[in-house]
Specification:
alpha+beta; eight-stranded parallel barrel; single chain
Amino acid sequence: MKKNILILLLLLGWVINIEAQRINTTINSAWRFHKGGVNTSAKNVNTDDWEIINLPHTWNAQDAFDETPGYYRGIGWYAKELTVPQTWEGKRVFLKFEGANQVADVYLNGALIGSHIGGYTGFGFDLSADLKYGGINTITVRVNNEHDDNIPPLNADFTFYGGIYRNVSLIVTEPVHFELDNDASDGIFVSTPIVNEQSASVNFRGRVENNTGNRKNAIVEVLILDKSNKVIAEKTAKIVLAPNSKSDFSLENLQITSPELWSPDRPYLYQTITRVKEDTDDLAILDKIVVPLGLRWYKFDEEGRFWLNGKPLKLIGANRHQDFEGLGNALPDSYHYNDYKKIKELGFNFIRTAHYPQAPEVYRTCDELGLLAWSEIPVVSGISESEEFAQNCLNMQREHIRQTYNHPSLIIYGYMNEIFLGFQYNRSLSEADRKRVINATVDLAGKLEELTKTEAPERFTVMALHHSTQYNDSGITDIPDVVGWNLYFGWYYQEMEDLSTFLKDQHERYPNRPMIVSEYGPGTDARLHAKTPKPYDYSEDYQYVMHASYLEQMMDLPFLAGFAAWNFADFGSERRGDAIPQVNQKGLVNFDRTEKDITGMYRAYFLKEPVVYIAAHNYTKRTGVEDSAGSGIATESVKVFSNQKRVELMLNGKSLGQKTVEDHMATFAIPFRNGKNELRAVDANGHSDQVTIAYTLIPFQLNAAGIQELAVNVGAEVSFYDPETQITWVPDRKYTAGGWGYEGGAPYTVQQRQVKTGIDRDILGTDNDPLFQTFVEGLTSYRFDVPDGQYTLNLCFQEPVSRDRQNNMYNLTRGNASESKVEDREFTIAINGQDVVHNVNLERDYGSLRALTLDFTVNAEDGNGIKVDFQSKSGKALLSGIRIKKR
């Protein structure tokens, strides 16, 4: 028996040798982190007091969302101890980073082993020669996310988080192995020069590295396996490896008959195995790499349409930033996977990875789920004219392409986004300077195009442009294969319907230029809702209107290759002051990936399975005014999104009738009553959706019936729901007898290219920014004709003007500032004729842009209700919110 076991173990040992593979393991756990610089060399640094963290990690997950302008952009240090076994001596040990933003200096046992510039591509270093085998080794990494004029991105509408925010791995191989230091790529590159329904031709190329001092004879073998793990094609080539050298190999024209084609509807993946063996009797395997293979062919035709596998296909999808609420950009792979799974479940077939290469897991997921991908480097909003900047751009694109080359999902490489946007805000440039910068930008675009075509000649190239004539005038749009337009008609400028006019004009002028609408969509806060939605109101209702208009227009343009909504999810943008400050809110889902109701519209448009969705899941606690005195109902419209012909809506079990679904929606008038209102929508086959809405009815005449509570979003045309207090602040109105509202003054608005109600600024001391960002200015009183009784009265204020920030007064766009002189605003507040606050100056007494709530107990007597008077001493009195509650 013992003899048999020994023979078995020997056999097992021989098998292990024959199948020797590289070790590839993440080392994300138990790093130490120190924010800031260190006053010593990396060799002598003491990490005992450093914080223990796990990777991925960023130091900006919190400070990029606090109320202090700016966030830490500087140095952070990381350290990890590794025990390296003696058995690794003689092997090759490689340290690989998937991403660190934005400059990383890597040390091993105190000695610098390499540096990397650029925050969104991977990199790695060979540790083999300097490791202590059989002992403890220390990896130390200095990461710096300071602004650098020579490193893109220079300036953009997203947060530049610092840190080692992606995985770090150790790769251990035999001395003879596939190349590890080719820009952190797979080391082999698989291409498919010929694919059709009858056959496919597959090529493999790469390098084998010999890190021994001896000449080696080797065999490179490639295998293609189908999903049942059956080998369907294979080929070998002999190579001779000189001592301490690298040798190229190329195995071409592996044939597959009647191939299974990769597509969004059926993302079939073959598996390729590339092995290097010793050219000896035992053919010991020295290294092996497994790469998925998707067989597809695609093109943009002369009419601008996109074709996949011989059939026209509209590219329909979204952009995606890589950060997440509470985590910054330091996402585990499961978060990336879940994002793209959600994107696919919206019915999309296309994704743009804005505005930088994303984690390797992203591209693996796109391959697996069937999402065609546009991937780009972060050359955003402008360039520096230095040679170093240009070289960094080129290096990034080369790394980007080599690291993503083997993914069948990736069809388009991009290299610039809105690159002339900076001219809009830089009025100091002379005409000569502007021409010089434009010429330099066009020159850099040409170099990036040439590099991209050299590295990936079978892929298409693209750049994304904002709404400006400079792109066509400069000739830069003639450089890439495809042009992407970031268009916001009906939000930043003009009307929604102007989208088609613009695209048709571009197609008529440049009929052979493929176009994608690469961004579109309004800012949206799921806490805000409007009966008459308008641009810049941030309501979910305007999101429905704008997306519906764009979808109808874009689907009706046969020459438009595709479109990508901006954005899949809300994302961090520290300089923004929107309804949720520090966050760009144009997502289809929230920052935490809870869904906005617009997702129901997209499912109805693009999913094949039946969809019935009531667009009210984010608005289940409502307050509204009775339609007429004593009617007992408040009528509001509710949309049902569906891909069925007709839907029926029921309220508390009673049918409100059936409606024909037009443009994937039907709108119902709902007679809400005070209390619980159960809505259920159903199609002819029983597919349904339901939602329960708790409705608080405000009497048409306040003095005709008792009222328990009324909260008003003063100066606003939208309702605001605070999920923390569960209070709904209703839209404002002018006072009418028997009701409530303001007297004198008017809601504050700003005329930009669109009219905006209120200000886009971060209001300090509150998370309820929409309540304080709007206000009535110059009012003389606010009245509630309530029945007699005792009430709690809350008044909400903020001072939008700051002496310290005159250039930012009423600033909505961080650059479109008012030039008016700062004026003292001082007023007295009286309630029912009694002064309660004397000569308040909000800036002096509380500070500007800071939420203030004043609470009072008041009595309504003798049928006079509640009247709050505002007596101005200087400037214009203002009010942002007011609430009464019966005691």
